[in-house]
Write a structure and sequence with these properties.
The protein has 143 residues and is mainly alpha-helical. Helices cover 36% and strands 8% of the residues. The N and C termini lie far apart (30 Å). The protein is built from 5 helices and 2 strands, in the order ααββααα. The chain has a two-stranded parallel ribbon with strand order 1-2.
Length: 143
């Protein structure tokens, strides 16, 4: 969350008029953390993100360093209200700005509208590319 707090973008966020950290803090009331095999989630209007850390392939204990801000933003968007609109776990399009659309938009802005190091921007661009496909959206394709 400290990472989100320091971020600034050269373009506005497409799902809110607020700065990222302010939107995030207003969308949720807290985060609960557990180690397990399930998926992280946040139900609309419940405002608590349930983060599930999965041990890595070597069986080591999960650490907070592995939390990606785009996953937190995805779950905070659920707290903000929108559910997935297609096949229970997908959004129909990026434009409807559901959880996947917000996550995709965040990754795209991280790749194109920040002063992050070039290697990190490239990683965000790659993640955005793979996110915009049939695993996240019913009516979108990779571009």
């Amino acid at each position: 969350m400290l990472y989100m707090r320091r971020l600034s973008f050269r373009e506005p966020l497409p799902w809110t008029t607020k700065p990222l950290y302010q939107w995030f803090r207003e969308a949720i009331r807290g985060i609960s953390v557990e180690v397990g095999t399930g998926n992280s989630y946040c139900l609309p209007q419940h405002t608590i993100i349930h983060l599930v850390f999965k041990p890595d392939y070597k069986g080591s204990a999960p650490t907070l360093e592995r939390v990606n801000p785009d996953g937190l933003i995805h779950e905070a968007r659920h707290a903000d209200g929108p559910l997935h609109t297609c096949e229970l776990t997908k959004d129909r399009t990026v434009a409807e700005m559901g959880a996947w659309g917000v996550q995709y938009s965040f990754l795209t802005l991280m790749a194109t509208a920040t002063d992050e190091p070039a290697a990190e921007r490239a990683s965000f661009a790659t993640n955005a590319y793979w996110l915009r496909g049939p695993n996240s959206f019913c009516e979108e394709c990779r571009r």
